[in-house]
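RETRY 2/3 - previous attempt timed out on the joint model. Re-submitting the same 315-residue input unchanged.
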Amino acid sequence: MADINEQVVEEWTASTTARERVKEVLTETTSFSKASTIADRARVSEPTTRKYLNELVKEGMGVTEQDGRTTLYKRNQGRVVDNRIEELRTTCSHQELIEEIQEMKQSIQGFRETYDVESPEDLAIELEPGDDGWSDVGRWQSTRRNLAIAKAAIQVDEAHRLAEAEV
Amino acid sequence: MTDDWDRVDTGAPDASLLASVRTVAENYDPLVTATEFDNPLNPEAVHLYLDDGIADESGRLDVTWTDKGYYRYHYTEGDDFNYRYDCHPRVELPDAHFHEPPNAAHNDAVPSCIEVSTVRLVTLAVLQLWRDAVESGDLSQLQQPDPP
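RETRY 2/3 succeeded.
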């Protein structure tokens, strides 16, 4: 029987273009990475990967950082946030957003009270390796992020409605 | 339940990666019959409902991906049948490890056969391994060809 890893890679490379694969890998690259690392993951040659990465950066999908002579790439986190705000604004009702904002605020208050610290960064400092509670560091970070996005969705929606009304 | 995921810094659940899992799974039709986020505005997991099962007649995959690129694919058919493909730092095991059925307990973990690392490829591999186990009724299909 074919190795499961080879099998899924073959299906992927047979059904996509090199550019699609580079784009897909870039959208899940959350920390700065070398073109060669992205090329390996995308199953595309390094020069071709670099060419597509530079195009994708121009289109706003990615951002770069210089490490000496090496260019590092990652996804444009700001673009991800903007897309998410637009998605929530257009798919959630005002009431849903308000309710979820309250719930996320309560979750964050719960983390503060449970661990008696003010932020997930403080919690990470408090915890020892192997302690229970490490996953709450990540939960707290994502809840804080999603709370800001939900609040922004309400604000952006308000701005759109006012702009429409005043024209 | 003892869960090694809670004891290491795995990063924050990432809504955009979870959305990618859902898209890939929905395109894997027809056995993925429904998908939903545990919390649409603040998701930690996406649930994939499967219209077939190994010990039972249906199952569910609970999937989490974090902004550090770690993942958890927990397959459940209720209390009696569970297994899990995990990728996160763990003492004495590779990042990618497999919690064996039927309990998926902390001490059941062995190295995973899944070596690919992107959202699409891991999702397709987990679904394909599940399908192979469902069709053959052979649990060893969940780790093929052999654990590395």
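Chain B touches chain A through 38 residues (CB under 8 Å). Closing ticket.
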